[in-house]
Amino acid sequence: MKHLLVSLCVLLLAACAKTPDWDYDKSVTFSNYKSFAWIPNASLTKNTNNYQISPLMEQRVQNAVNDNLAGLGLAKSDEKNADLLVNYHAAVDNKVEVDTFSTSYSARWDYWGMGYQHHTQTTNYEVGTLVIDIIDRKTNQLIWRGAKEGRLKKNQTPEQRTATINSTVAAILSNFPPQ
């Protein structure tokens, strides 16, 4: 019984894990694409003032995307000769987590009544979303989009930030090209 309860808890936690979200044009033959380039003026830092989205983070994301697409057999090219153009966006939202739990149950005999005591705790945190767009250069149409969100962690080392970006980009691009 104990093992069954542990197994159910593990499955529940796995179901709650943040998985990437993808969308793509089903009419596109992705095997025809052999090269990619970044869209001119692609920028994560545009339209945001969050300190974690910086030129350093932008370079980490670009490196991770370049490495992942090269691992898929796509060659990096200049914009005029590329089959695909890559763009990306980032957003940071503030979220509030509210936890309410019962701290005790009490019954009093010296006066009428019994009941629960409740404790409520709120936590503010930031959630970041990274979106990667793949565009057909000839038609200028979006053909694939992947996104992943996750809770932003503060006070990370540059190595930890790089590892987080590498795993996030790999998760987003795990369905590119779509099977």
From TrEMBL:
Residues 1-19 form the signal peptide. This is DUF4136 domain-containing protein. Residues 22-178 form the DUF4136 domain. It comes from the Bacteria. Keywords: Signal. InterPro entries: DUF4136.
